[in-house]
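Chapter summary example.
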Amino acid sequence: MKTITSKFDQVLNASTTYGNVNHEPDSSKEQQRNTPEKSMPFSDQIGNYQRNKGIPTKSYDNSKIYIVGSGIAGLSAAYYFIRDGHVPASNITFIEQLSIDGGSLDGAGNAKDGYIIRGGREMDMTYENLWDMFQDIPALEMPPPYSVLDEYRLINDNDPNYSKARLIHQQGVIKDFSKFGLAKKDQLAIIKLLLKKKEALDDITIEDYFSESFLSSNFWTFWRTMFAFENWHSLLELKLYMHRFLHAIDGLNDLSALVFPKYNQYDTFVTPLGRFLKDKGVKIQLNTLVKDLDIQINTDGKIVKGIITTVNDQEVNIPVGKDDFVIVTTGSMTEDTFYGDNNKAPIIAIDNRTSGQSAGWKLWKNLAAKSDVFGKPEKFCSNIEKSSWESVTLTCRPSALVDKLKEYSVNDPYSGKTATGGIITITDSSWLMSFTCNRQPHFPDQPDDVLVLWVYALFMDKEGDYIKKRMPACTGNEILAELCYHVGIIDQLDQVVENTIVHTAFMPYITSMFMPRAKGDRPRVVPAGCKNLGLVGQFIETNNDVVFTMESSVRTARIAVYELLNLNKQVPDINPLQYDIRHLLKATKTLNDNKSFLGEGLLRNILKGTYFEHILPVGEAEESPESFIVEQVNKFKDWIKGIKG
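The structure predicted for these 645 residues follows.
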């Protein structure tokens, strides 16, 4: 590879940076200052300057890459090995336990038997790594040279997302969702949480910190149902989310901050990315279970020597050479999914004695048994009652439910445009049930007269309000009855059942990544001492990013490739909008339900008529006790004018 940079040898040989790049800079610890020693961008400096291609310090033409798991993290790792590592695609092999790629990003079925999607994707414009990759992946439906990002922008730029029925209650009545309803003490608690050091929040839950008034506010209803947080989840993760999405807080109630794909998550992302990789020559070995890694651990570090697999009930060991690399997705949020349908419940009982025993968790547990650097998987997979929820996919022919849906949609659901604009939450549902109708068709082959709806609920331990059973014990038709009751059409249930195919999915670990944690519970992307092993996915420690997003999976993959190959390229930290004074001021006013915050009048008076006036949040300042201060400032301004005059 020296020929690539041969004309720059004089500079590179004298550089202290070349070959010594910090591949995962941390913006929460960096004081941004330009110095002669500062040659690379600031840790969260985003933009086209970061679009340089990585240059390997040596050739990897003979290196083999084994990627365990073909979810979005594994697929992304393959992409970055090819694009920035210059690894031949034919050298890359996926080892997948399932019979299909995609991991948790699933989407399958047909109109006759019913469609199923275990989850959906609420996307953000600041997913720098995701869009970095998908701006290069050929589009699903547009011709070359257009990309997945081009398709995504085309539809979202021209079909804005918002909700007109974010909350409903009293058998289908739209509830006022214009206010957060946060008491002053709860607003202050949020501010104090943002100011706290991450290191001070180990193993603390949300309900340990926040008061009952916060937990019963509209704000928390919006937040918990949009992001799937429970009261007993990690306060640290909530803090990271608040920093990550601070710029979107004024779109939290009406969901106007979100952008959605045209189709389901599998067809939108996995299909084009998988097609790109396969066309390049990447290989995929399905129906292969990886049980463990043979790792040599000594004073020189930790080196993977082999991959221990099971194929057709036979143990097969794959040797790993000294120049080869292994990428492993640890844990799984959708492992051990139980399925049901119209007439069958997915699961009757939850048994923690069997938790964390499936393949995805066992591999991580086997790694953790070798060294503390591989984390503590039991922190995340040992309490199903607190990490599970159930989702439901409805394949709907015209019915009373579809008619009711039209009342809640911003456009006709059959129009191809934004329908509900995101989830509609039933606030007086004992299950805390939410449902959504995304743009239709949700699948490319979906008939014109079919709609696909998605339903989920957070409270698995509660009896329903109409069906007096816990949700996992209910058949699909019983869940449909509970939904019809809450939207006020229970008298038309028979007609709805006749025209609706129901598929249910109970997922024991779906929010396991949110469980309270401490430093060291999650491994780093490249754990200390590892020479040829990278860990990726939702249970990996990064500096400031959150979990339960596609972006976090792509980030871990990108870091793994850059770190293992020691590329002269960084993975930028999360988008720095949390430090932008405009978003800080906007968030302060939004949390106060758009009432004036302390000092706003003074700030407006100072900035009025200046270049910086636009940084202030929309609206005017109300009269407040600070008016005396404003009066004194005006007198001071008049005095200054007098001197200048």
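To summarize the output: The first strand starts at residue 65 and ends at 68.
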